[in-house]
Design goal:
This protein is α+β, with helices and mostly antiparallel strands and 130 residues long. The chain is 20% helix and 39% strand. β3 and β4 form a beta hairpin.
């Protein structure tokens, strides 16, 4: 199993009035981590097709606060011909604060699922969580 690690620090803009990281920011930060991870997996990817989130679930376990430093650990949990599922853990000092799981479908320019290019399939299968 290959884990991609993405470091992040909670900024003022990420928090609510109480200094707790706003729940919606987890999705944006997870997306940044996925893009950093994908950029290391396979380049170039055709521009007329792409991965689009099909489903997403977040389990909030422990809040993150202003100035907290944490890591998002991304692993592949399933690979299909036209989809990939990942798990992303928000980890601060060894403690899991949130777990995001999701599936992305690979769509063509008309919004229909199509088989991913072999470069992506091979990269995702190589990192599949065992």
């Amino acid at each position: 199993m290959q884990t991609h690690k993405f470091n992040f620090s909670v900024a003022y803009a990420d928090t609510d009035a109480g200094g707790i990281m706003y729940h919606g920011r987890y999705i944006e930060i997870a997306e940044r981590a996925r893009m950093a991870w994908l950029g290391k997996k396979a380049r170039p990817v055709p521009s007329d097709v792409g991965l689009v989130i099909r489903d997403l679930h977040i389990k909030y376990i422990k809040p993150l606060f202003l100035t907290d430093k944490f890591v998002i650990e991304t692993v592949v949990t399933a690979v299909g011909a036209a989809s990939v599922s990942v798990e992303q853990k928000f980890v601060k000092k060894g403690e899991v604060c949130a777990i995001l799981t999701g599936t992305a479908a690979y769509l063509n320019g008309e919004g229909r699922p199509v088989r991913m290019p072999n470069i992506l399939l091979n990269a995702f299968n190589a990192g599949l969580k065992g």
